[in-house]
């Protein structure tokens, strides 16, 4: 560590609170700082400091053609306009003369082909192209990116309905995983998992659920588990469950097992609507319909994960407050002032709405910078981080392999 008037622990703590842009600039100050910023402990410390900023929110916005970042500060309570900043994303990599792709040697090339977000975790974004022919992992803050080898699905499922995905991190295994669930009425639901550490896909046992792809949302990450709304499919030939019955299905990233998470006991198994995260807790949005018209929605939060009795109804939103879009809303984040940021959708028209449960009022936030006249978009919470995509496990494996190759070369040279 460079000489400082502060103790080393305090200096490291100060540096870990800086934004990613500043840290990238400070890498050239001295070699000890450069090494520090790449160390796993510092990366985790930096992530912890920036992921708990409850009143400062960064969103990734996808309008179907481009990606944008949106920074929102809830302390500016009178602010109605927010700025969207367009960002380039990795998509096309030219091949060398041997037909191989070197993803690290070429600059990012933006494209207007459009992308679909499959998940975001610890500053790493997972997305695919609209024709689903390639999947990327990408840290927009560090510009590091990785194209996943293999689409992760079998020939049987290429004609399946839209595929639910989920992306997240497991502390126990210290690794990231991407989950894809393919349903086909002949073969059931097949699960495939990509692990970043091994850079490989593998198939898991089929599951007796039809996982909903409603709203095209990725699995909700809470407590190192991914969650979806699903329908029981007990047997491929005969579905014993009710057509409208719903369950919450979770996938444990560390142990790779599926379990059902109990819904609020006050609701029956036709509660269905949408899942989200509020205050770090699993959130369920349930609607009350009369004559097929949604009159209000209840927002429930599981305050103690895995405990059914901990489900608590936080608030109810009446149709008069949000209009027709009340049937398709997703909580994004709760702020210290008690207000909730929601994403709503009505006939392919999306909006970000700031809702005040205490006064039962709402106002739409105007996003400046997105294509003029473009009404559809999707958002994903995002934290700027230093998290690398090159696994330490793979680095150790490559070092060992290179060491073995060097030893073989030395032996060969001695014989000569």
Automatic annotation (TrEMBL):
<dbReference type="Pfam" id="PF07734">
    <property type="entry name" value="FBA_1"/>
</dbReference>
<dbReference type="Pfam" id="PF00646">
    <property type="entry name" value="F-box"/>
</dbReference>
<feature type="domain" description="F-box">
    <location>
        <begin position="1"/>
        <end position="45"/>
    </location>
</feature>
<protein>
    <submittedName>
        <fullName>F-box domain</fullName>
    </submittedName>
</protein>
<dbReference type="InterPro" id="IPR050796">
    <property type="entry name" value="SCF_F-box_component"/>
</dbReference>
<dbReference type="InterPro" id="IPR036047">
    <property type="entry name" value="F-box-like_dom_sf"/>
</dbReference>
<dbReference type="InterPro" id="IPR006527">
    <property type="entry name" value="F-box-assoc_dom_typ1"/>
</dbReference>
<dbReference type="InterPro" id="IPR017451">
    <property type="entry name" value="F-box-assoc_interact_dom"/>
</dbReference>
<dbReference type="InterPro" id="IPR001810">
    <property type="entry name" value="F-box_dom"/>
</dbReference>
